[in-house]
Amino acid sequence: MPELTSSFHTHNTEPQNEGEDPVQAASSRVSDYLLSCLNPKGVWEGKLSASALSTATAVVALELMHRKSSQDEPILEDRIHAGLQWLVGQVNEDGGWGDTTISHSNISTTALCWAAFGAASNKNPEFCPTVEKAEGWLVKKAGSVEPDQIAKAILNCYGKDRTFSVPILTLCALAGKLGTGRSGWRHVLQLPFELAAFPGSWFAALKLPVVSYALPALIAIGQVVHFHRPSRNPLLRFIRNAFIPRTLRKLIAIQPENGGFLEATPLTSFVVMSLAGCELHEHPVAQKGLQFLLESVRDDGSWPIDTNLSTWVTTLSVNALSVAPDKKLKPEISKPILDQLLDQQYRVEHPYTLSAPGGWAWTDLPGGVPDADDTSGALLALRNIGLNDTRVPNAAAAGIDWLKNIQNGDGGIPTFCRGWGTLPFDRSSPDITGHVLRAWLAWSSDLSPELKEGIQTAIPRAVKYLQRIQRTDGAWMPLWFGNQHNPEGMNLTYGTSRVLVALNEVRQSSFECSMPVVRRGYEWLVAAQNPDGSWSGSANLPASVEETALAVEALAVLDDLDSDEFKEFPVQSIMHARRNGVNWLLTQIENGKWIQPSPIGLYFAQLWYYEALYPVVFTVAALNRMAQAKSD
Predict the structure, then answer these.
(1) Which of 440, 415, 442 is nearest to 428 (CA)?
(2) Of 96, 190, 280, 501, whose CA is between 20 and 30 Å from 218?
């Protein structure tokens, strides 16, 4: 059983009373289980998968800071050694590492782990067999472990997007894996860190691919490359030297109070190691970042990619539980959640991303930044909690307005900000657009005339975007979720199911929705079901609880299949598919496998993760929907 589920206990799903409907019984039991996962604060925190990539980056950051320390630092030595030991225990049979403990080996994570051992384990012969296996894997994938081949393999992996290939190569250079002296940095692209000294509004105006969430890496990595391989052009070298103090002040200004940029171990580690690598180890940003790494390490020696997704999993949980009218949260449960959500809304411009007030982030910790998916989830949760609280209408209006103002020109909704290019942070996403549509619809009757007029225009534009972006096979592809068994990493089941739930709510509203578009989506979803009743990211791939539950929920929202609106739909196939999907889920609940997570989440730069609460929350939503649906 995966590490994150070891403390979970399942329930017997046999009906307690003879004749009790098995779906109703399972719905109640999984809902009770989800409620039992509330933390002492009265919200859900979940648990992100441990990450080999995060652990490798943290180990290198600690090692470089330890080298610079003038005092004996046993805690750093202990954390470094424990991190390397954890990596030894998690290496795959082929000698490489994947992003999570159940992920396939990949070039990025394996190269980072290999470099981490090189940086920190030269005097530890116990690690030699692991390093040799890793080098064997790298030779097979990259051709050799020579600097030219390693650099080429990593650059090819990410193509034109250098936001992650440059940090990886920086770590390899700092670990001594790309050569010595100036030549050891020839493969690391110089980042224009001097741009960080200018106002953020200039980036958008000039359409520069320099984004706020990348600023810490831009500044720190740019400076360490400049330190080791300064420009041969004396004027450019002078300009960059002149901008070092100003950009370091910028770095101080955007660092969260707990030291963790985006609450992300990799990003924070890259900043810390880069500052240490250019003799800035005593800089306050490096010291605060070091403290964040020491405080976020887990007892087993590993680090996750991010501290937690507390706000995200809390809103998912509330919304899953609220599907069933008879399962409304009791006031003693909903009040702490409401207070937490209202407290987490940003009411001033975010100092890091310069995002306007009104949005929510994925976490309750200082490193989060507002985004559209979490803002939508929070708005739906505020509606579903249903408490009569005078603070809620204003919070909802601010959130609705925030979402309206980031709608892209194509009608879709991006993750963090209005976009001008194709990078993930500003690119419209079908699943996020669907989530925003649901939030707008949920609050459409309780808005000021001005705001109502705004979303009256925004909703049709978003619907048209979803209709236009639908693939020819009927599916939609999400941005932040994937499937490691799919050669292209796509998770069409996640994207399609999320869009179909949203479009079902659109068709039940006063807004127009193309039924042929909806029909093609459901035809794809039915065709993607595995013979045993389960779903994966697409047809005929290994199943997961998360993907099956998501598909079942999308099928279950169709509770009026006998209406004329569905005369062109494969009604019998839909009913058959959802019945088989539910039966598969019930089997997983009976055998205790329903709480085993799968790596379907994609973090920044396509890093895989899994979250312990995803299978639980998605199963609750699916079964609650089915319990409310008309009988097949």
Answers:
(1) 415
(2) 96
Q: What is the 3-state secondary structure (H, E, C) of 314-362?
A: HHHHHHHHCCCHHHCCCHHHHHHHHHHHHHHCCCCCCCCCCCCCCCECC
The model's pLDDT over 72-110, given as tens digits with 9 standing for 90+, comes to 688 999 999 999 999 999 999 999 999 999 999 999 999
Residues whose CB falls within 8 Å of the CB of residue 599, separated by 6 or more in sequence, listed in order: 49, 98, 99, 100, 102, 103, 484, 608, 609, 610
| 66 vs 556: CA distance, rounded Å | 56
pLDDT > 70: percent of the chain = 92
User: Would you tell me how many other CB atoms lie within 10 Å of the CB of residue 146?
Assistant: 14
Eight-class DSSP state of 567: T
Q: Would you give the DSSP letter of residue 303?
A: E
How far is 42 from 105, CA to CA, in rounded Å? Answer: 38
> Long-range CB contacts (< 8 A, 24+ apart) of 569-573?
569/519, 569/522, 570/522, 570/523, 570/526, 573/526
Q: Higher pLDDT residue, 381 or 386?
A: 381
Mean pLDDT lowest for which of 39-53, 170-184, 420-434?
A: 420-434
> Which domains can be identified in the chain, with CATH numbers?
1-36+470-632 (1.50.10.20), 50-304 (1.50.10.20)
User: How far, in Å, CA of 42 to CA of 59, rounded?
Assistant: 34
Quote the pLDDT of residue 417: 87
C-beta neighbour count of 147 within 10 angstroms: 18
Max intra-chain CA distance, the chain: 85
- Enter the pTM of the model: 0.93
Token code pair at residue 40:
């002492």
Place of tokens 């990493």: 489
For helices 265-277 and 52-68, angle between their N-to-C axes, nearest 10 degrees: 30
What DSSP state is assigned to residue 611? Answer: B
For residue 631, pLDDT beyond 60: no
- Rounded Cα distance, 452 and 445, in Å: 8
Adjacent-strand bridge partners of 490? 482
